[in-house]
Specification:
alpha+beta; FAD/NAD(P)-binding domain; 2 domains; 10-stranded mixed beta sheet; 20 strands; globular; FAD
């Protein structure tokens, strides 16, 4: 009897194994893009330009395009170009200013603008004001130590080609003209300073993404399916991928065979990367950070402020939590936000599960995550302080940037969810990394984007990096080189080292996108 039972079980196991191995595809495509956010939309648009014959399938688990991190209300900051974000220019122990990251981010944003201008010129994006508008970028600080830091930062950056035109002032009346809300009701005895960059912009990445996806849907061979969630990824013997997709409306699953898969699912990317089982993805973990905004509901106040005013972050604060009084243009209307106030949620997506963090922990990443946690006590303390803030404390934080703020003019709204990268480190065991990272399979058949800030603003440059990693041979061909230079006129050139090229590019982009610009002498 026992032998029969064992034989029966072996037959079942062999049958199950054969069934899994020979699992057939319901459909075949060239490219699967997971998530309908700005990253997938950018990559899909670039790949379709490079090779118009490609078949591309885009799967989004929600019923809207750009409903998570790319949505205007979920972004911690828009139009990141390092003009005003002080966390990109930290002060070294010797008192000097580190500015290389600021230059890099600014150049990456210029690359994004080139691509958007190209898409507008080809009729593949809507009227530019629907997604990009001029909003001056300012840094604002108070106190002797912070003012001295900002002056050093200005002295360094104003000499850099991409930051020419930046203004600096400690004069109360000048600052009152630049940012009346911030200075009204403030003591003239307070030591204050600010920098001002007139060519700063506000970008509605939700609108931009929806424009790109709408254009992609019109292309031959492109399929966009909402309410479709990628549940699993399996590598086949021929090097392609079997992508299991669940239709959330019908609860039916399909299997899509794809030559290349991009996981651009925001906070959901980590779990799918783990399911892919590629060696390059082992050891990565994630730490979720949530956020909230104070949103102004008084139109008279909104009308008085036309800038993005960034301050210094608190000790231990993640980059997405740098405080700023922020003018946004959302669906053609001005909005005024302050924050974000950081918090903690175990969700990896705003519309995710509270089990996301627990489910992401594996034997491969538990030690890096524990090590990173032990080394980031200031972040833990900061988040606890933010989570336990009272309404009065939030209002007091706002009053540091808007002294006459009244609670009745503002309401608290939930912002987006971000997942900071935790990665293995030989010395530390694990490190918490602020930024974005492309993780790709050795053969280039799969890539995932992990991380957060600066994210969307540098999406085009990030996707160029991905294309070079995953399609090195194609990117080296004359055809792809030519098309890359058509999309990105400064492709493989350093804007930060070529004044004539900067002037040419900024003039062309600004003319197409309807933005301000000035010629660098």
């Amino acid at each position: 009897m026992m032998k029969k039972l064992i034989t029966y079980l072996l037959i079942l196991l062999i049958g199950f194994s054969i069934g899994c191995k020979n699992k057939s595809a319901d459909e075949e495509t060239d490219v699967v893009l997971v998530g309908a956010g700005v990253m997938s939309a950018t990559l899909g648009s670039m790949m379709k330009t490079l090779n118009p014959k490609l078949k591309i399938n885009i799967y989004e688990r929600l019923d809207l395009v750009a409903a998570e991190s790319s949505d205007a209300w979920n972004n911690a900051g828009t139009g990141h170009s390092a003009f005003c974000e002080l966390n990109y220019t930290p002060q070294r122990p010797d008192g000097t200013i580190e500015f290389n990251k600021a230059i890099s981010i600014n150049e990456q944003f210029e690359i994004s603008k080139q691509f958007w201008a190209y898409m507008v010129s080809k009729g593949k994006l809507p009227e530019p004001k629907s997604f990009i508008n001029n909003v001056p970028h300012m840094s604002f600080v108070w106190g002797d130590k912070n003012v001295a830091y900002l002056k050093k930062r200005y002295d360094v950056l104003s000499k850099q080609l991409l930051f020419k035109g930046m203004q600096y002032s400690e004069n109360f009346d000048t600052l009152s003209k630049w940012m009346p809300l911030v200075m009204t009701g403030r003591s003239r005895k307070q030591k204050v300073a600010a920098t001002y960059m007139a060519i700063g912009t506000d970008v509605n990445f939700g609108s931009l993404t929806r424009g790109l996806v709408a254009s992609l849907k019109k292309e031959n061979g492109v399929k966009v399916e909402l309410n479709h969630e990628v549940k699993n990824l399996k590598r086949l013997e021929d090097g392609t991928w079997l992508v299991t997709v669940l239709d959330n409306k019908t609860a039916k699953e399909r299997n899509i065979k794809a030559k290349f898969v991009f996981i651009g699912a925001g906070g959901g990317a980590l779990r799918l990367l783990q399911k892919s089982k590629i060696p390059e993805g082992k050891g990565f973990g994630g730490f979720p950070v949530s956020g909230e905004w104070m949103v102004c509901n008084n139109q008279a106040i909104i009308a008085k402020h036309i800038s993005k005013v960034y301050g210094k972050a608190g000790v231990g604060a993640p980059p997405m939590s740098v405080p700023h009084l922020d003018t946004r243009i959302i669906n053609g209307k001005k909005a005024l936000l302050f924050g974000p106030y950081a918090g903690f949620s175990s969700k990896f997506l705003k519309q995710g599960s509270y089990l996301d963090l627990t489910r992401s922990i594996t034997l491969k990443n538990i030690w890096p995550m524990m090590s990173a946690g032990a080394d980031n006590i200031p972040l833990t303390k900061y988040l606890i302080g933010q989570v336990t803030q009272s309404d009065e404390e939030r209002l007091n934080a706002l009053k540091e940037y808007f002294p006459e703020a009244k609670a009745s003019d503002w309401k608290l709204e939930t912002a987006g969810q971000r997942v900071q990268i935790i990665k293995k480190d030989e010395k530390e065991g694990g490190v918490l990394q602020f930024g974005t990272e492309v993780v790709s399979a050795e053969d280039g058949s799969l890539a995932a984007l992990l991380g957060a800030s600066p994210g969307a603003s540098t999406s085009v440059d990030i996707m160029i990096t991905l294309l070079k990693k995953c399609f090195p041979q194609q990117m080296a061909t004359p055809e792809w080189q030519s098309r890359m230079k058509e999309m990105i006129p400064s492709y493989e050139k350093k804007l930060s080292e070529d004044k004539d090229l900067v002037n040419k590019i900024r003039k062309a982009n600004s003319t197409t996108l309807g933005l301000k610009y000035f010629t660098i002498d």
